[in-house]
Write a structure and sequence with these properties.
FAD/NAD(P)-binding domain, alpha+beta, 485 residues, 16 helices, 8-stranded mixed beta sheet
Length: 485
């Protein structure tokens, strides 16, 4: 018989962003003790808009149905209030226009991409984080904890986390959810490894949230309340409603030939710099009237965000011993697919699934040691997750080239462009979640076959049952309902 305390893994999550909170909720749902260590004084999210594919929502339901509740509480449908939701992503020619069209009625529609029922629902990142936080018990988080190092005291001892304030904590494993500037990635890969750091993509994003009462009179209700992407040479603009339709999230992407200054040799000090509406207008000079009107609505002073990713030096592994990476800490991607957060949710589901199996092993097999079980679970994670997430990093760069008419295989041919966008999007949206879960479970059981008395692993599918009704009729099949910035 296993001892009374067997099977109680203690998990440390470094980083309290969206992926960190979602992973923590999944572990708590499975009665696995977890503590989040966040370096800020409170939970906070940077950026403006985020949305998730139906695939990501299905993963959320399998992690814990309350996560779907949180999304539904702050989601804004694509389309005008009171009307049926708009189930399409729209691509327009934002550059070419007829100067004889004095009304400047619209830029040319280049293509529509069906994205499933309620095809697009945007969220404000901070609002979503606020909803998720409601489900995190106070005992499961510590603030003002800047991770500095980890000491491995041997296979039969817990890891020792150390923080900049001189305090320490113990855990059986560490999950790095500390984002693109991850300290845990440096721990896993080594501080001298170029893959430990993100690199500038030579793209920037000008971001703003504009009150909808200013937007609608200028560009009309349809443009204001429906997602649009305005494409053109070497730049593009995306906008969609958030905050219940009270705000328009606008992000303008453009090339930045110069290098972005680094704050220190071991990381990026600041990924934003001040900019002005005039700066954006200069980038989009000569574009069509729709784009010009949108830019006229920007505040005088805005932020310019440098876009970094892990394309140049992908992490060769997401795991070192009993330490692993998830979300942007593992595979930070440019936002052009809008799938980074959703892929991070998949990471969280994978880890929750494996650690549930590990807990069952420790509860039922007296000869199993915590270190060996945890390492086996993380080895399976490292075999299953990287191929898909590395592809996302690569494809996010490529699809931006399609949007900006410089992809070598599509150019300005929008039949080819739409076919390329569709193929890449479907590879993300039509993901075989059940297949991933089977691969994870089979991989773990090949290392630790379940004992005949083991009954600790719960069928995660039952979690989705309670979430189906909470998704407000959204189809929980692998069709898309959104993209993010």
């Amino acid at each position: 018989m296993a001892s009374q305390n067997a099977g109680k893994l203690q998990v440390a999550i470094v980083g309290g962003g969206i992926v960190g909170l979602i992973t923590a909720l999944g572990l708590l749902k499975r009665n696995i003790p977890v503590k989040i260590y966040e370096q800020a004084s409170s939970f906070r999210e940077i950026g403006a808009g985020v949305a998730f594919t139906a695939n990501a929502l299905q993963c959320m339901a399998l992690v814990d149905p309350v996560i779907v509740d949180a999304v539904n509480a702050v989601a804004t449908q694509n389309g005008q209030e009171g009307a049926p939701p708009n189930d399409y992503l729209r691509y327009h020619d934002g550059y070419n226009w007829d100067p004889n069209d004095i009304e400047g009625s619209d830029d040319k529609l280049l293509g529509l991409l069906y994205s499933g029922y309620k095809g697009f629902q945007g969220c404000h990142r901070a609002a979503l984080l606020d909803e998720l936080v409601k489900y995190i018990p106070s005992h499961a988080v510590e603030f003002r904890k800047r991770f500095t190092e980890c000491k491995d005291r041997g296979p039969n001892e817990r890891l020792l986390l150390q923080f900049s304030d001189g305090t320490s904590a113990e855990a059986d494993l560490i999950i790095g959810c500390d984002g693109i500037k991850s300290k845990i990635r440096q721990l896993v890969l080594g501080p001298e490894n170029p893959a430990s750091y993100p690199y500038f993509t030579h793209k920037v994003a000008y971001r703003a949230l504009i009150p909808m009462e200013r937007v609608e009179p200028v560009i009309g209700a349809f443009k204001a309340y429906n997602q649009h992407m305005h494409t053109g040479p070497r730049a593009h603009i995306l906008h969609f409603p958030v905050s219940g339709g009270k705000l328009l999230n606008v992000v303008a992407f453009a090339a930045e030939p110069a290098d972005w200054p680094l704050g220190d040799p071991n990381g990026v000090r600041n990924m934003t710099s001040p900019a002005t509406r005039a700066d954006v207008a200069a980038v989009f000079q000569g574009w069509g009237p729709t784009v010009t009107k949108i830019i006229s609505l920007l505040p005088d002073d805005i932020d310019k965000w440098a876009i970094f990713d892990t394309y140049d030096h992908p992490a060769p592994t997401y795991v070192r011993g009993r330490v692993c990476l998830a979300g942007d800490a593992a595979h930070a991607a440019a936002p052009h697919h809008g799938a980074g957060a959703g892929i991070g949710v998949e990471d969280g589901l994978a880890l929750c699934t494996l650690l549930e199996q590990a807990t069952a092993t420790l509860s039922s097999q007296t000869n199993a040691t915590t270190g060996a079980v945890v390492e086996a679970a993380l080895q399976v994670y490292d075999a299953v997750r990287p191929p898909r997430s590395r592809w996302l990093v690569q494809s996010s760069r490529s699809v931006c080239d399609v949007y900006e008419w410089v992809h070598p295989e599509t150019g300005e041919d929008w039949d080819k462009c739409l076919a390329e966008i569709t193929a890449r999007s479907h590879r993300l949206w039509y993901f075989d979640i059940d297949g991933m879960l089977k691969e994870l479970r089979d991989g773990y059981e090949s290392r630790f076959p379940p004992s005949s008395s083991s009954s600790g692993v719960v069928d995660a599918g039952k979690f989705a049952e309670g979430a189906k009704g909470k998704m407000d009729g959204a189809v929980m099949e692998n069709v898309a309902i959104g993209i993010a910035t």
